[in-house]
């Protein structure tokens, strides 16, 4: 008997085991503080337009006050017709979207069709609710399926909202201002891309945790256009000199050569057939 | 500074600070809710419909933690589907309320959500049930959520027995409008659902169409 999917149906009822474990862990550290997970200060946004969905994200990943990655990819592939922007703890968003993507791939292979966005949302909501906020993933899911163009947001505690436009991440209040001002139903493709670009740009300008380039992903019935980067940062590196050292920069004081004594232990010859 | 790159509200639990109300009339019920979902000081969704269908003629109004309330509503929706297939007819409102109550009671320490269940069935007509903390009580009308505290006086004074469907809808809209004006965690638009034996009617009343009172 083959299992139709690897989605294991969780046991009935709510499972709060991890909440107890986390509370127990908290007491183990002197000073009473569990180590804080790394977060990507981020601006991500999504807009439903006439023919599909446009998702946008900045590309900065920070590790405290240092920019760890200037070209981080925050728009994750879920399935050929669904992409997901992730804000919050970087590891959590990566792993959650990967897990979702692999489960949906198995579903697609079994059923022979692209998954619906609402299915992805339900799986995410189930999983995040079960972990009661311990998985710090704020996700924007956008996709096109046989029922239309959809944009959903799922929070770390498992709450779902279905809206025509939204922004998430530390720069979201700035981006939301642009979206609230410029959004209309049934926008044309170019206007929608420009709206999302402007929203992410506002987030980048107003938030220290967001920056560098802007990625845009357009999903329509015909396919996906993942433009990375859509707009490059104006503050590009302009290094004035090379940081390579030419040979001879470091002086050699002494040199000692010790030859290695090797003896042949076993010799095998294998003839190759080159007929 | 950059050490705390994210505003606090992003890691706070999302709550539907809310005003919800359900009232029964002869032949059906009317449910109403606001549309604001907040996380700390920020409004996460200003147009959320908190009236969630459990079955064709049974709806519930969500309040408290958004994730908990949504999950309870989905679970009961599923259980009611199975139950109504088993009995071969539409479920009773009391059954739906009981299913919600069972979850609220069993997990009362872990959950933080209050659902008001209301609907119409052919045995007892329109009914409204409150399920706060795991109790089950039928009431002629019920209010809930953070905004309800501001309107207890209003609903107690204005409620009359034997109101018609239109009277009930006006009563609900007035209550919601008053609560949304006073409660910081309620606002947005008003959603109305009217259920009777002929069917279910969903309505949205935009902010500027809500009734205004003395200081507006």
Summarize the structure.
Chain A has helices spanning 17-28, 90-111, 117-130, 172-182, 189-206, and strands at 39-40, 44-49, 52-58, 61-63, 66-69, 75-79, 82-89, 137-145, 148-154, 160-162, 165-168, 214-220, 224-231.
Provide an overview of this structure.
The complex is a heterodimer of chains A (275) and B (216). With 275 residues, chain A is α+β, with helices and mostly antiparallel strands. The longest helix of chain A is centred in the middle third of the chain and has 22 residues, at 90-111. Helices cover 28% and strands 27% of the residues of chain A. Chain A has helices at residues 17-28, 90-111, 117-130, 172-182, 189-206; strands at 39-40, 44-49, 52-58, 61-63, 66-69, 75-79, 82-89, 137-145, 148-154, 160-162, 165-168, 214-220, 224-231. In chain A, α4 (172-182) runs antiparallel to α5. The mean pLDDT of chain B is 91. In chain B, the strands form three sheets. In chain B, strands 1, 6, 7, 8, 9 and 10 form a six-stranded antiparallel beta sheet that branches. A five-stranded antiparallel beta sheet of chain B has the order 11-2-3-12-13, covered by helices on one side. A two-stranded antiparallel ribbon of chain B has the order 4-5. The chains are: A alpha+beta (275), B alpha+beta (216). Chains A and B meet through α3 of A and β5 and α1 of B. Chain B: This is Proteasome subunit beta. Chain B: It catalyses: Cleavage of peptide bonds with very broad specificity. Chain B: Keywords: Cytoplasm, Hydrolase, Immunity, Nucleus, Protease, Proteasome, Threonine protease, Zymogen. Chain B: It is found in: Cytoplasm; Nucleus.
């Amino acid at each position: 008997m083959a299992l139709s999917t690897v989605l294991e149906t969780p046991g009935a009822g709510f499972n709060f085991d991890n909440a107890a474990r986390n509370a127990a862990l908290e007491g183990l550290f002197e000073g009473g503080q569990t180590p804080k997970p790394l977060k990507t200060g981020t601006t991500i946004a999504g807009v439903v337009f006439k023919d599909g969905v446009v998702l946008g994200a900045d590309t900065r990943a920070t590790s405290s006050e240092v920019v760890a990655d200037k070209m981080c990819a925050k728009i994750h592939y879920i399935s050929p017709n669904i992409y997901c922007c992730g804000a919050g703890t970087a590891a959590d968003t990566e792993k959650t979207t990967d897990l979702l993507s692999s489960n949906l791939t198995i579903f697609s292979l079994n059923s022979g069709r692209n998954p619906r966005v609402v299915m992805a949302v339900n799986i995410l909501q189930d999983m995040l609710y079960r972990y009661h906020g311990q998985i710090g993933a704020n996700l924007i899911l956008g996709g096109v399926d046989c029922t239309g163009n959809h944009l959903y947001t799922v929070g770390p505690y498992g709450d779902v909202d279905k809206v025509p436009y939204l922004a998430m991440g530390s720069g979201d209040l700035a981006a939301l201002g642009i979206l609230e001002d410029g959004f209309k139903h049934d926008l044309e493709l170019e206007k929608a891309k420009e709206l999302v670009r402007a929203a992410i740009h506002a987030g980048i300008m107003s938030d220290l945790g967001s920056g560098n380039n802007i990625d845009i992903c357009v999903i329509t019935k015909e396919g996906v256009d993942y433009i990375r980067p859509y707009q490059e940062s104006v503050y590009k590196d302009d290094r004035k000199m090379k940081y390579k050292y030419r040979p001879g920069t470091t002086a050699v004081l002494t040199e000692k050569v010790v030859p290695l004594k090797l003896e042949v232990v076993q010799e095998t010859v294998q003839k190759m057939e080159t007929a | 500074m950059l050490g705390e790159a994210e505003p606090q509200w992003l890691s706070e639990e999302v709550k539907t600070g809310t005003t919800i109300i359900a009232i029964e009339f002869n032949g059906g019920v009317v449910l109403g809710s606001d549309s604001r979902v907040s996380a700390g000081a920020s409004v996460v969704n200003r147009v959320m419909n908190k009236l969630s269908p459990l079955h064709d003629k049974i709806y519930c109004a969500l309040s408290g933690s958004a994730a908990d309330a949504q999950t309870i509503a989905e679970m009961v929706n599923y259980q009611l589907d199975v139950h109504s297939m088993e009995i071969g007819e539409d479920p009773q409102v009391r059954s739906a309320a009981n299913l919600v109550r069972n979850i609220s009671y069993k997990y009362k320490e872990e959950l933080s959500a209050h659902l008001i269940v209301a609907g119409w069935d052919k045995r007892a007509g329109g009914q409204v049930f409150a399920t706060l903390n795991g109790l089950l009580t039928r009431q002629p009308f019920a209010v809930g959520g953070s905004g309800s505290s501001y309107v207890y006086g209003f609903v107690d004074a204005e409620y009359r027995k034997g109101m018609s469907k239109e009277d009930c809808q006006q009563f609900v809209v007035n209550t919601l409008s008053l609560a949304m004006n006073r409660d910081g965690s309620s606002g947005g638009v008003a959603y109305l659902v009217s259920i009777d034996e002929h069917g279910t009617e969903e309505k949205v009343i935009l902010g500027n169409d809500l009734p205004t009172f003395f200081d507006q």
